[in-house]
Design a protein that fits this description.
alpha+beta; Alpha-Beta Plaits; 4 helices; 6 strands; 26% helix
Length: 96
């Protein structure tokens, strides 16, 4: 898989933005991606050094719209921590 296929999108929430000071960035990633693949993809895409990767599966939530009901899709989240000497990711700098 290519790096663009592994890292789907950045997660922009209050909690994820609070971690940027500690060089901790949050991404939605492919469901079948491993921690090693995620680390390599982030390094290739943004030119940074990854220290560690934490992953978790986010379950789909139950939603109703009128009479129809169902679940939103489930997805995988990765919290990527960069090394101390690594540069920041410019994409997130504009959000602060």
């Amino acid at each position: 898989m290519a790096a663009q296929d592994i890292v789907v999108r950045p997660i922009i929430t209050e909690k994820s933005m609070a971690g940027i000071g500690a060089k901790r960035y949050t991404f939605e990633v492919a469901k079948d991606a491993t921690k090693i693949e995620i680390a390599k993809a982030v390094e290739d895409l943004f030119g940074v050094k990854v220290n560690k990767v934490n992953t978790l599966h986010v379950r789909g939530k139950f939603r109703r719209q009128g009479r129809s009901e169902g679940y939103t899709r489930s997805w995988k989240k990765a919290v990527v921590t960069l090394t101390e000497d690594s540069k920041n990711i410019e994409f997130f700098e504009g959000m602060m």
